[in-house]
Amino acid sequence: MKINIQRKCNACKCAIDINRNDVQGVVYYNKLYYHTNCFCELAERRSALKSGKPAEWKNALDHVKDFEQAAVDALSADSPRAKKDTDDLNDYLIEKYNVTAIPSHFWIAVENLQKGFYRGKRCKRVSIDTLLAAWKWGQRKLDDVNKRNKMNHKGPKDDVQRISYDFAILVNKIPEYLAYNAKQEAAKEEIRTQSTRINYNNLQRTEVKQEGLGDISALLDEF
Q1: b/e map 59-74, b = 16+ CB within 10 Å
Q2: What is the tally of helices (H) and strands (E) in the chain?
Q3: Cα 61 to chain center, whole Å?
Q4: pLDDT one-digit tens code per residue, 145-171
Q5: How far apart are the first and last CA of the chain?
């Protein structure tokens, strides 16, 4: 099977390897992805509980095929979701960097990153929606780097070149973003787990410290 993207199963937390031309064994439910087997096991457990919306999970279990089709619609290579992800990244960069167009070589690099290649070397596959989320997560630090570059008269010559420059920094920082995001998801899952055991009125939400890129000045020598 040709695998060209990955998603993380929200139940077992393992990777779901997906061929965008033949999406199988994947559920898309409440904007989260699951292995079909993991989803069915989770839905069975939660539908048996007395709290935590058991009726909703029972209904989800009865309509697994619908959520498998939702995954096909979201992940297929020619799906509206795939096109929307690209449009969202394009719109974000055009607005944030104040450019009229983004050069084709940038999109080639993004496509290669989705396939697990960067600068001719193998790397972790990164979807466009993950790249966009990481970009927003790191934007403040990227802006700080740009200010320092301008003060020191170095770095990219214009905002179009800056997009590729910032992209290179972000690729190096993707593992940190994924770790940050995993911490956020773990905190949310802990809250969901608690909500099945105690009254919602007594639930004390966990405050998760917001984190950013950290010091990335050391990366600049590469560019």
Answers
A1: ebbeebeebbebbeeb
A2: 7, 6
A3: 26
A4: 999 999 999 889 999 999 999 999 999
A5: 37
What is the C-alpha separation between 4 and 77, in angstroms, rounded?
A: 10
Tokens representing 220 are: 């600049």
Question: Using an 8 Å Cβ cutoff, are 126 and 111 in contact?
Answer: no
| pLDDT greater than 50 at residue 129 | yes
Asked whether the beta carbons of 84 and 78 are under 8 A apart, the reply is no
Cα separation, 63 vs 134, whole angstroms? 33
- Here the tokens at position 78 are 């020619």
pLDDT tens digit sequence for 88-111: 999 999 999 999 989 888 988 998
- Torsion over CA: 6, 7, 12, 13 (sign): positive
Among candidates 26, 23, 19, 25, which has minimal Cα distance to 3? 19
Report the distance separating Cα 33 and Cα 26, nearest Å: 7
Q: How far apart are CA 162 and CA 157, in angstroms?
A: 7
Nearest to 13, CA basis, from 29, 34, 27, 41: 34
Tokens 């069975």 correspond to what residue?
Answer: 44
Kindly state the helix (H) or strand (E) to which residue 158 belongs, with its residue range: none
DSSP designation for 50: S
Tokens matching residue 208: 């998760």
Task: Output the pTM of the full model.
Answer: 0.55
Identify the DSSP state of 79: S
The residues, any chain, with a CB within 8 Å of residue 105's CB and separated by 6 or more, are 164
